[in-house]
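INTERNAL TRANSFER SHEET
From: sequence group
To: structure group
Subject: FAD-binding domain-containing protein

Please process the attached sequence and return the structure record in the designated field. Keep the field labels unchanged so the import script can parse them.
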Amino acid sequence: MPLCDRLIGRAKQKSRRNDISQGTSTKNCDLANADLTEFGAGITLYNRTRYILRELGLEEALKSKSLSPPMGCRKSDTQNGYTFKTFGESGNTGAIAVHRVEMLNLLSKELTADTKPAGIFNVRFSKRMTSYTQDSSGVTLNFEDGSFAQADILIGADGIGSPTRKTMYTGLSERARGTNPEHADDLMTHALPIWTGIYIYRFLVDSAKIQAIKPDHIALSKGISWCGSGSVGLISYSSEMWL
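Return from structure group:
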């Protein structure tokens, strides 16, 4: 049985509690009444992720928040450009695009609502984990505010500066240090993020300025992946799609 199936099965057991902690950059935030303050780019969800959401009864709620029309890849370096790939229900991948805020809203509201799977998830915002320890009894999570939590399993989907990754590889390195110093050094190279040499910029452009120049510009009506030569590219979508 795949790992995701087992996790879904555990999540569906009402006697088990599942905590989701979302760290934010808000320093002076009332944790008991914290609102969703995290922002970010659009994300694409493929079949495996959608399967998990479907098993939890959330796929229909997610689809109602997805980008419409769906995002696509467009060839535009010729006089008559054309869209050669569309990500949507009719595509081979079955991928759909949503904004990150919509995804977090879905997790925080739907999973804690008074419907299935009610009572099995506890979503906490402004809880930034700094490290964890583990022993035969489970995992202890240490948070920036001095609090801690205990769990059977820790899934660290915490981004480029992941304290989960740092703690895990630091521990592996320390255990290997006595018998294989070279391997220990190699493990530590995985503990921290390494710059790949590529820059990615994210910014907002007032759609009114684009409309003034070209009212029917394709970027005003759908999300587009503009593919350039080498590693140069641009992904655009209108914020009006999410509001």
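Handover comment: Confidence is low (pLDDT under 50) at residues 1-9, 25-34. The helical segments are 3-12, 47-55, 59-63, 100-110, 163-177, 181-188, 207-213.
Transfer complete.
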